[in-house]
Structures
1.
Amino acid sequence: MAKYLISFPSAAMVLPDDEWKAAGRDAHAVIEEAKAAGVYVFAGGIAEDVPPLLVTADGAFTEGGYPWAPPLNGGFTVLELPSRDDAIAWAARIAKACRCDQELRVFQIDPQS
């Protein structure tokens, strides 16, 4: 089984004010379904009120991420699934609940980690 990242950037969630509560409820319901199915690894979002730190190999750090990279934000779900087709189906369920498209990626696992 592979681990899949299902995610969206914050800017993708453009909802009318009266839909936010329902989207949150529906997204949490899908996560509960994933837990019940035994495929849940973790889920959450990037804390956008805490700036990233760029840490060098010698331990020095500066506030901010890579200056050339787009910001990393939004919501993330990691599921462990038997196939890409299963991952696509779960991503569709999450997209419907969140009311925005989801990006799907598979983790390349280092067998020595």
Note: The longest strand covers residues 2-8.
2.
Amino acid sequence: MRWFIRSLYISVIALLCLAACQQESLETVKVGEVTRSIFYAPQYVALAKGFFEEEGLAVELQTIAGGDKTMTALLSDGIDIALVGSETSIYVTLQGANDPIRNFAQLTQTDGTFLVAREQMDDFSWAQLKGSTFLGQRKGGMPQMAGEFVLKKHGIDPANDLTLIQNIDFANISTAFASGTGDFVQLFEPTASIFEQEGKGHIVASFGTESGTLPYTSFMAKNSYLEQQATTVQGFTNALKRAQDFVQQESAAEVAKVIQPYFENVDVQLIETVVERYKSQGSYATDPILDEAEWENLQTIMETAGELPQRVAYEKLVNTIFAQKAVE
């Protein structure tokens, strides 16, 4: 019996040492996401399923509220990779960054917000927003720009045809609407679906389907990091592609079950509803390649919103080498 216990003890110690050695051999990658969102489901799938570890990477994920703060962390080397709207790379470039920020892997390809009305509207038309009070997103951010682009597309002048409120912080927009501010509000999931469940509002339209495909959220890094850590970036992109395939091939229920640990306070059935809604409208990019047509649509939306002093060439801020290899 003693020899059995001794052998078992030695085996356990050996396994612990092996696990420790494997952990030490992983390359640490610090990733900053602009918010925690079901909109980013493939990222959490890659984490939960161990796809990054299988590529030799230990991803340390932190949520950094706000695109400006996320980019500051990236520029100051607080993080290696940022998950944020592609428009931020344009803003940084136009400010004269010495080390260009380049988009190397696309995660979402449509706007992720929905138009929520205070009342049920079975026969909704965009013209019904005229004369209303519309609670929009922060000026200069991609949700606001996509929102205004859609309004103008439907013949609505945001400055004259409705009362547009944009001075409320992102975190407080849903609370303001629930408290009685506005007839319509532009919301991300799962808040939009939660409002429907609680009878506080009704989803009547999707800004994502109306604004077309664009690099809404992408992984980006300094050009120097992409050059010096090419193997790491390739492994990261490979893992992301596997996660994107998982999201496309598996049911919304299975995806919801996998990512639920990242949304502990959200019911799994609600997560499933949100995943299905984003899948059905093609919000999740099917691969990490950021197409030039999407890049140009992004800049058109920014121009329409008056937030783009000049266009920036696709080749300057987009690197598709890693994404192409991941797909191959």
Note: The radius of gyration is 22 Å.
3.
Amino acid sequence: MAKHMQKTSMFMEQSPSDYENGGSLKNVDDDGRPKRTGTWVTASAHIITAVIGSGVLSLAWAIAQLGWVAGPAVLMAFSFITYFTSTLLADCYRAPDPVHGKRNYTYMDVVRAYLGGRKVQLCGLAQYANLVGITIGYTITASISMVAVKRSNCFHKHGHQVKCQTSNYPFMAIFACIQLLLSQIPDFDKLSWLSIVAAVMSFAYSSIGLGLSIAKVAGGGHVRTSLTGVTVGVDVSGSEKIWRTFQAIGDIAFAYAYSTVLIEIQDTIKSSPPENKSMKRATSVGVWTTTMFYVLCGLFGYAAFGNEAPGNFLTGFGFYEPFWLIDFANVCIAIHLIGAYQVFAQPLFGFVEGWCSRNWSDNKFITGEHAVDIPFYGIYYVNFFRLVWRSAYVIVTAVIAMIFPFFNDFLGLIGAGSFWPLTVYFPIEMHIAQTKIPKYSFRWTWLKILSWVCLVVSLIAAAGSVQGLIQSLKTYKPFQTQE
């Protein structure tokens, strides 16, 4: 995300070297903000970092609840819907014209430009609550992967009969300490390198999980699978089957949750070629690449584990051999989530800092930048408000993750809460406003039907996840070592 805190005297402070022969500033865009350098490649990396997140780990479990027929069908449906609405949203980056209109730097800015009124506040509430939820979820997931490495080594060293009790909490604290440092990266535009590293990590652990699943299937051994997933009366009761089906839909919705940061990602792309064309290309690459991984990981994971597929399929290989490969995969997950946390946190950081700087522009604590010369890096500008606020945010999300460390339930609830408003409703409503589609026309009608169907899907997915959280809370004791 481009910086919100820009000094009004920017143009006065430029040196002669900042100007090109024509007299225009070469280091800033036409609106006076720092010149963007992103391309569809870096945008694709951001998308893959955001999309191939911890959601891929729960897909084998989700397919197990839905079965061979409904599972892949739901995956493909979410893929098509996400791609379609993302292209609509990409066209809304500039207003009123997709190519020559005024830039909008955040999702809320886009909603303000096209819809206005109370919908701006509703968008902000949905987006930023979702971003908070995702960062909490990623803290939980990263700690699970770090614990898996420790337990894998313990089993390898002491034998499979040892319990190897391990607590998640020290690893959540380690993850939070890393985020304390990375959260001081000033803005989204400086995250390209981190996203590329994270995208490589996501491909690595997805490929390892896929490879282990294929090896397990090829190695024989009987597992129960069925066209309709887990069997009522054998694996689950009738009510559990319904609730788990709802929760599985929420988990798949979460696996495609990146619309919350689409506009912020698009705001890193340079203006030539037009941002919407580059973003559509990046969306196509990102969504279809991740869908391929999702289908393969979900289906082969289900084939490997059957109806007893674990919530996190990389922890389902028994922590046994090859222990080093499973360790490497879990380390890749942790590194990936370190980057993904920042992709989702930066829009929230930018929103709060921009709002505070506009309301207290004379407060030096909020707006003051202090130059610090860092060896091997150069000049880094320290802002005390940024330092305090971002550090406090990381600490609070880590504490909440420690109190409610429920992986699958949390993922499903986040996915259900964000899918309809941010991935479907607002992009469709803004597309209708932008293109002035006549009310009750054929296109208007089917867009509205799509929106309402997705609302129903989000509601039932949320219901399943809430029920799962309630069941987990009944037996959960906070801050207790897990076996």
Note: The two ends are 41 Å apart (CA to CA).
